[in-house]
Every structure is written in structure tokens, then in C-alpha cells.
Amino acid sequence: MTDETMDARAVLHRPEGDRSARARLAIIICAVLLVVIALGSLGWGASDASALGVVLDMISGGAESVPARDRIIVWDIRLPRIILGMLIGASLAVSGAVMQGLFRNPLADPGIVGVSAGAGLGAIGVIVLGGSFLAPVTAAFGIYALPFAAFLGGLATTLILYRVATRRGQTSVATMLLAGIALGALAGAASGLLVYVADDRQLRDLTFWNLGSLAGATWTKIAAAGPIIGLTLVASPFLARGLNGLSLGETTAYHLGIPVQRLKNVAIVMVAAAVGASVAVSGGIGFVGIVVPHLLRLAIGPDHRYLLPASALLGACLLLVADAVSRTIVAPAELPIGIVTAAVGAPFFLWILLRRRGLLDL
């Protein structure tokens, strides 16, 4: 065994110190914060429906005499929206962390490098052509047709991106970003063509869907996207050791006994599935995958054993807060959530670029 391999094993299995304790504390804080934000969102809205009153009415078997309108608002509107927001926020943040570990660069993000655009193209194809050309697909997959089509679009984009940006085990950041821009533009052109042939009803749906929103959250959408997102979130911690080894280089990771190619294949499919399912039910919500992992990496370090679960929790928190802002900033109307995340994420992305180039000493 070479000295380099021994040093690498020491890095992967070093005794846990203050950084690990801080990471565990951060995970606990994020979990508590998520519970608080979710409970607050359940009782916060344009309507004066009391979430506490509805819950007490359910517990007491109807003794509280809560109006049926309040039950509908809490259980059929607010609760599905909160659950879907947590699932999507967690999946986008974890997908960003996995992509950054796979490409070994903090600038990788499903929205920036075109993966979300590819997933969106698949979803738009089903929305526009689901009643005609793709009718057999929608009939065969039912409510899963939209997530499945988005998954295929995201998977194709991710595979092309990885092939183009990686050579001899090294990923070029400039090539990755340029390829992402090109793939996003190509997916956008194809999506524009589909929008051109859409009817008036489909156009209205696509306009708000492209901006990203949780307004259409229903239990049916949760049933369609929830199992896919949940499976990717459960599977993500099993990639932690491999991503830690991959951060030392593919050659070193291979000598550590990590099945590098299988790790890359699983990571690519997982990201495509998570992003595809999220985009299918919420539209384009960007920058969650770059903001959350980068903030956590600064706070608790790059160890994916802690980074992945912390990203899931903080991503869910961030999206619930963004959704609350979108519901209240222009009340009684509603601002698309994609606008809110872009307003925060775009300056943050520029800050990362400047910091990496040494133009900011922060």
C-alpha cells in the first residue's frame, strides 16, 4: 500500500473532532427549525383558518365544531403544499450536494448546468403532447407519466453533461458551465417549440409552471412524486463514503476500494430522478442546490456523511421560507416561488464565482 493511499484512508477514517460535533449540532438545529417552520406555515396564510382548531377538532372527534371551509384549507391546501415543499427543497439541495461531490466543484447545480431544463423539457412534452402523440405513455404510466418523462429528460441531460465535461477522470469547470448553458439553451428551444403548438389552456398552465410554484400542490401530486423523491433521499447517505473518496481523485478513490464507475452511475440516476420528479410537480425552482450545500460546507465541512442529511433539512427549510415569502409579499396575489429563489440565489452564485477567483477576500 502506497503512502498516498494510507494518507487517503486516514482522511476518510480520521477520528471525529470538533467539526463532526458541529455537524451533528447543525443537523439537530436544522431538524428543529424545519418543524417550527412547517408548523408556522400550516397556520400562516391569506385565510384566517386556524390550523390548531382543525387539529383539536380532529382529536376531539368533531367537538370543536370547526367550519368545513377551515378543514379544506388546512388539510387539502396548506398541508399538501408544506409536504411537497419539504420534499422538493430536500431533493434539490441533496441533488446539488451530490452533483458537487461528483464533479468535485461547488459550482455544480442542477438548475445552472441544464439538468432542470432537460427535466422541464420532458415534463412539457407530456403536458402538451400527452393527449395526442404521447397518449400511450400517459395511459401506461398514469399519474407517474409526468415524473417519468421529467426523469428521462434530466437523465439524458446529466449523462451528456458528464460525458462532455469529464476527460481522463478530470472535470473541467469551464467546460461544465458552458456545456450546461448549451444544453439548457437546446432544451429551452425544444420547450419553446412545444409551447408554440400548445393550446390556450396549456399555455396558461405552462406559463406559471415555468416560473416555479407550489400553488398547485395536491395529494395526487405527492403520491406521484413523493415515492421517487423519498427513495432518492433515503439512498443518498449510502453515497457519502464514495463521494468523500471521490473528492481525493478518481484514482485514489479506486485504490481505496470504491467502485468509482458504479458510484457515478448511481449518482447520475439519483440526481436525474430527484430533479425530474421535483420539476414535474413544481416547475423551475433554481439555486436551492447551490446555495444550501455551499453554506453548509462553509459551516460544517465537506464530509458527505453530514453534508447530505443537513442539506436535505436545510433545503426543506429554505423552500418553505421562500414559499411563505411568495404567498405574502404581494398578497392577496401570489409570486411564483422560482422568482424568490432566483432573487436570492443569483447574487449568491456571483459571490461564489468572485470568491473562487480571489476577487473577494471573504
UniProtKB/TrEMBL annotation:
<dbReference type="GO" id="GO:0022857">
    <property type="term" value="F:transmembrane transporter activity"/>
</dbReference>
<keyword id="KW-0813">Transport</keyword>
<feature type="transmembrane region" description="Helical">
    <location>
        <begin position="25"/>
        <end position="46"/>
    </location>
</feature>
<keyword id="KW-0812">Transmembrane</keyword>
<dbReference type="Pfam" id="PF01032">
    <property type="entry name" value="FecCD"/>
</dbReference>
<dbReference type="GO" id="GO:0005886">
    <property type="term" value="C:plasma membrane"/>
</dbReference>
<dbReference type="InterPro" id="IPR037294">
    <property type="entry name" value="ABC_BtuC-like"/>
</dbReference>
<feature type="transmembrane region" description="Helical">
    <location>
        <begin position="337"/>
        <end position="354"/>
    </location>
</feature>
<feature type="transmembrane region" description="Helical">
    <location>
        <begin position="174"/>
        <end position="198"/>
    </location>
</feature>
<keyword id="KW-1003">Cell membrane</keyword>
<comment type="similarity">
    <text>Belongs to the binding-protein-dependent transport system permease family. FecCD subfamily.</text>
</comment>
<keyword id="KW-1133">Transmembrane helix</keyword>
<feature type="transmembrane region" description="Helical">
    <location>
        <begin position="115"/>
        <end position="135"/>
    </location>
</feature>
<feature type="transmembrane region" description="Helical">
    <location>
        <begin position="266"/>
        <end position="294"/>
    </location>
</feature>
<protein>
    <submittedName>
        <fullName>Iron ABC transporter permease</fullName>
    </submittedName>
</protein>
<feature type="transmembrane region" description="Helical">
    <location>
        <begin position="218"/>
        <end position="240"/>
    </location>
</feature>
<dbReference type="GO" id="GO:0033214">
    <property type="term" value="P:siderophore-iron import into cell"/>
</dbReference>
<dbReference type="InterPro" id="IPR000522">
    <property type="entry name" value="ABC_transptr_permease_BtuC"/>
</dbReference>
<feature type="transmembrane region" description="Helical">
    <location>
        <begin position="82"/>
        <end position="103"/>
    </location>
</feature>
<feature type="transmembrane region" description="Helical">
    <location>
        <begin position="306"/>
        <end position="325"/>
    </location>
</feature>
<keyword id="KW-0472">Membrane</keyword>
<feature type="transmembrane region" description="Helical">
    <location>
        <begin position="141"/>
        <end position="162"/>
    </location>
</feature>
